[in-house]
Amino acid sequence: MNALAARRRHPAAIAILLLLGLVAVGGAYSLLAPRQADASVVAAGDLSKGKALFLANCATCHGMNAQGSSAGPTLVGVGAASVDFQVGTGRMPLAGPNVQAQRNDNVKFSQEEIQDMAAYVASLAPGPAVPNSEYTEGQNADVARGGELFRVNCAMCHNYAGSGGALTRGKYAPSLKGVEGKYIYEAMVTGPQSMPVFNDANISPENKNDIIAYLQATQEEQKVGGMDLGNLGPVSEGLFIWVFGLGIMLGCAFWLGQKAA
C-alpha cells in the first residue's frame, strides 16, 4: 500500500505538464510564425504633437481618448496604417455626416503631421503599421498572379479593371485608378468603410504587391479596342449603343423618310 502511494502522481503534476506544453507551443509559434511585413515598420512621428493634433481635430467625433462615440468609431487598435490612409487620402476629417467618406485631393494636413497623428494612434494599441515600400510599388511582382487574386477577392466590388462600382444603401466601391500603391495596401489591411480586412494570413505582403502591380498594368496598357468607356463593362457599352447607335439609326430613318417625301 505504501509503495502504491509513493508511485501515485503529485496533484500538481498535470498542471505543471500543461504549463510546460503551453510554453513550448508558444515558443515554437514565435519562431515559426510567418513574418508580418507591416509589423517591422515602427510608426515614426512625435507622439506629443500627434496627440495635440488629434485633440484639436479628431476628438470631437472619436472621443478624447480615441475610444469612439456616437459620431465616430473607436480608433484604439486601428494602427498607423488606418490614420495614414484616411487622413492621407483626404477622407478625414469629415466636413459633416455622410454615407461614405470620399477621397479628397485637398489634404488638410502635411505628411509630417499625418505621421505624428499616426504615431499617437498607434501608441494606443497594436494595429497595422504603414507598410514598407518594398510591398507597395509593384516592383519585382507577378502581374498575372496579381490579376488572379484581384479577380477572386476584389473585382466583385471594384470591377475587373478597378473602375469601382455601386454597393447597397448609397455606398460604393471607389475607383482604384491613380491610387498610390501604399494606400491600396493600407486599405487591404485596415478594411475602410464596407471593405473587408485582408491581413497577411489572407493575402501575403508579396501577393498584395502582385495586386498593386496588376492594377498599375491595367492603367498603363494600350487600349487596342479604342475608347474603353471607363472599363465599366456591358452597362456603359449598352448605354453608348442605345444613345448614340439608336440615335444615328433614327436620324437616318428620318432623313430617308424626308427624302422620299
From TrEMBL:
Q: Which residues bind heme c 2?
A: C154, C157, H158
Q: Which GO terms describe its cellular component?
A: plasma membrane
Protein name, entry field: Cytochrome bc1 complex cytochrome c subunit
The EC designation for this entry is: 7.1.1.8
* Gene source species: Lapillicoccus jejuensis
Membrane-crossing residue ranges in chain numbering: 239-257
Reproduce the UniProt comment on modification after translation: Binds 2 heme c groups covalently per subunit.
For this protein, the record's Pfam families field holds: Cytochrom_C, Cytochrome_CBB3
Quaternary assembly: The cytochrome bc1 complex is composed of a cytochrome b (QcrB), the Rieske iron-sulfur protein (QcrA) and a diheme cytochrome c (QcrC) subunit.
Which Gene3D superfamilies does this UniProt record tie to the protein? Cytochrome c-like domain
- The broad enzyme category this protein falls into is translocase
Provide the binding site for heme c 1. Answer: C58, C61, H62
Q: Where in the cell is it found?
A: Cell membrane
In alphabetical order, the GO MF annotations are: heme binding; iron ion binding; quinol-cytochrome-c reductase activity
User: PROSITE patterns per the record?
Assistant: CYTC
Q: How does it sit in the membrane?
A: Multi-pass membrane protein
